[in-house]
Amino acid sequence: QSYCHRLQHDMYFLTSTSRLNEQVVDKIVLQLNRVYPQILTNEEAEKFRNPRASLHTRLSDLLKHLQKKGDRHCQEFYRALQINAEQLFNDLPSRKILKTPDPTEIDTDKKQYMLNDRGPVFFLACFSMAAGLALFWYCCNSETQVIARARRILGFSPIIIGRHVRNICMLYLEDIPRN
């Protein structure tokens, strides 16, 4: 779709009330006047920046003028609109049509499937729960050799398990033989 056709399609959207304000239109006209190659001459820029005419009239005349000039001029208008009013540029009807995929096309992009979207905190919580249950099951076994091994492992692990947690586990292991 050519830029002229897109501009014709977007014309009503752009000229409707409160879409573009005076300052944005002036910035766009100045950019079209100063860009290389020069899209608007000085006289044309003054005509489209005339504060005596209503904003709707000036904008309508500008869009019609650009459509008469050709595709390159319309393309530069879209570039100026994107620079000076990006949110409005993204909301244009022609942009929405371009973003909508054609249902007859074959989608070559493979979607990436996320197995778990809950994040790393959820993973750490589940892993900690599993490790805690495994340690508890290992320590609650009635064999004394298991308790001695657990005491050795917990005694040499101040880096892995915090001191307070290690002390609680050691007290628990000392209480098991008493019961």
Automatic annotation (TrEMBL):
Pfam family, one: CARD
PANTHER family to which the protein is assigned, alphabetical: CASPASE RECRUITMENT DOMAIN-CONTAINING PROTEIN 19
TM helices/strands, residue ranges: 120-138
Membrane topology listed for this record: Single-pass membrane protein
Subcellular compartments: Endoplasmic reticulum membrane; Mitochondrion membrane
The organism of origin for this protein: Malurus elegans
Oligomer and partners: Associates with BCL10 by CARD-CARD interaction.
Domain CARD residues, every copy: 38-96
Source superkingdom: Eukaryota
Any one GO CC term of the record: mitochondrial membrane
GO BP terms: regulation of apoptotic process
Family annotation (InterPro entries): CARD, CARD19, CARD_BinCARD, DEATH-like_dom_sf
Keywords: Disulfide bond, Endoplasmic reticulum, Membrane, Mitochondrion, Transmembrane, Transmembrane helix
Protein name per its UniProtKB record: Caspase recruitment domain-containing protein 19
